[in-house]
Design brief:
The protein has helices at 2-9, 30-33, 43-48, 58-63, 66-75, 95-108, 160-167, 187-191, 229-236, 258-271, 290-297, 310-321, 377-392; strands at 15-17, 38-39, 80-83, 87-90, 112-114, 118-124, 127-133, 136-139, 143-145, 176-178, 182-183, 196-205, 211-221, 225-227, 247-251, 323-326, 329-330, 338-340, 361-363. The chain has 393 residues and is of the alpha+beta class.
Amino acid sequence: MLCAALAAERGCRVTLLEPNRLLGKKLRITGKGRCNVTNHCSVQEVLKNIPGGGKFLYSALGKLSPDDVMAMFEEMGVPLKTERGNRVFPVSDRAGDVAGALERRMHRAGVRVVHSAAKRICTQDGAVCAVETAEGRIACQAAVLCTGGLSYPGTGSTGAGFRMARELGHAVTPLRPSLVPLTSQAPWCAQLQGLSLRNVTLSAYGGDGALLYRELGEMLFTHFGVSGPLVLSASAHMRGLDAGSCRLEIDLKPGLDETKLDARLLRDLEKYRNREMRNALDELLPRAMIPVVLELAGIPAQLQANAVTRPQRRALLSVLKALPVPVSGTRSIDEAIVTAGGVSLSEVNPRTMQSKLVPGLFFAGEILDLDAYTGGFNLQIAWSTAWVAAHSL
């Protein structure tokens, strides 16, 4: 929608092909329906949050930076606010306001919307000449593929864009889920299903023991493993690795170092000295977690608090500061927030977003081999690449 509106404002005759009856369907569910429009940070900070393909975006971000995106939406009548982690949202907390503003701008610019899916991009003498739809061919001098990745296929991200790019000779790098929940074979994850942890620190380690990610925030236990903001972010740092060889550790008490936590533990054990251990940690942990933590620490649940030995207390302390979660893999790409992989960047001109192989063919957004960490960076990629494509048509 942004690419179509900008191109039309510059004098192009633009047709937007959208099989959904509702425009911006995927945009409307981003950020849990609130739409994390961008991240209020510098261009350099955006690049740091794009593993692998950041250099490709130097030009695009120079032309439409996070500050520019914020100003653009404010001018379009969408007041914005900045929250924790510099994440930018509409003041209304409604993603529909963002999609609606884009839709109005597009219609004012004279964009024609056709509710049909593109089937094939046609070429003549090697250059784009038409787009084939279920209703027939639409002649054109240029076509922009903004079809997204494979995540959330119900919104229209079915992978059709990758197929069309391949048909025109483009290489598509391996597609895989990113910002995705992680699976675990630890049976206690399912036992804790539905339990949300706040203000914990999650660390992710590769198979070689190297630290991949560490952050304070929220996470959630599920029937298949773990999810929530911290876990989704951790998954993005596992790119290029076998997720099943990685492991997680949860610091349940990040605000206390081991010495202070040990002192706190001693106080609780003294306070509830005549209770069994399964009933002595209520002030320290969510009720559902107590049996899990005790089992991992090797402490019998029926043991009297006043009978806990120093080695047992040290073992308990270790679990509280680094509860181990084995990872067996990721959930499917259908459940991923973004798709990693896509049209090879080496075949796209970063200053125009035009194909180096097919004149008149342009790309923008998630279809490109670009993905970022969570925090509004993926939408920033979409806005900036759309802006460049629109101004190059």
